[in-house]
Amino acid sequence: MTQRTPKEPLGVPPEIQTRLEQAGLRRTLATRAVLGLFLARPLGGLTHAQALAALTARGLDINRVTLYRLLDRLAGCGVLLRQADESRNWRFTLAVATPAGHDEAAVPRFECDACHRQFPLTDASEPTRAVTHGLFAALARLGHHGERVDVSIHGTCAGCVEPSA
Ligand SMILES: [Zn+2]
Questions:
Q1: What is the domain range of residue 134?
Q2: What are phi and psi of 35, to 5 degrees?
Q3: Residue 1 falls within a domain, yes or no?
Q4: Is 105 found in the same domain as 90?
Q5: How far is the CA of 155 from the centre of ligand 1 (A)?
Q6: Does the residue 86 lie in any domain?
Q7: pTM of the full predicted structure?
Q8: Ligand 1 center to residue 118 CA distance, Å?
């Protein structure tokens, strides 16, 4: 019998928990270790190789193919975000980073029309929240009740922009 402590060292946010369950991902030791890695550094991205090195350093015996699949599945169910960096390596970041909780829609998204990758603009969540607030106030003056706002910006990402003088 394994005795489970109610709280994990780095509590998995309920939103991530929900997504894992919906995707039918079992919370194996490897899954928890990988999540722990990303939860510990929510702002930094990790490449597959960096994640592998970090997990190995923590004493987790995981092979690279298993880790690849796991990262892909976590990206597939929206827990991790996958984007290519300047050197065209896939870099994974935690997709669910909403300490405020109730207004995740306030994080605007940028979508590249060339490669269709999406980038959450977490840095812009404050100004977006202010704009959202203004929009809801305007709606309220008309008697409407706004529930949520989706902000998505379309354009060309840094990786797709033609270098020009
Ligand atoms: Zn692009």
A1: 101-165
A2: -60, -40
A3: no
A4: no
A5: 8
A6: yes
A7: 0.53
A8: 9
Tell me the per-residue pLDDT of 75-120, one tens digit each, with 9 for 90 and over. Answer: 988 888 888 877 788 888 887 654 444 444 567 788 899 998 888 8
109 alpha carbon to ligand 1 midpoint, in Å?
13
Please tell me the distance between residue 102's alpha carbon and the centre of ligand 1 in angstroms: 30
What angle separates helix 29-40 from helix 64-76, to the nearest 10 degrees? 70
Given a contact cutoff of 8 angstroms between Cβ atoms, the answer to whether 61 and 116 are in contact is no
Asked if residue 91 and residue 14 are part of one domain, the reply reads yes
Domain boundary among 97, 120, 153: 97
Q: What is the domain count for the chain?
A: 2
Residue 10 Cα to chain centre, angstroms: 17
Q: Give residue 9 CA to ligand 1 midpoint distance, Å.
A: 37
Give the span between the Cα atoms of 41 and 93, in whole angstroms: 9
CA of 76 to the centre of ligand 1 (A): 19
Q: What are the CA-CA distances from residue 59 to residues 27, 66, 76, 115, 144 (Å)?
A: 18, 16, 26, 37, 55
Residue 116 CA to ligand 1 center (angstroms) comes to 6
Token pair for 118: 């999406």
Q: pLDDT under 50 in the chain at which residues? A: 1-9, 98-104, 165
What does the pLDDT read at residue 155?
92
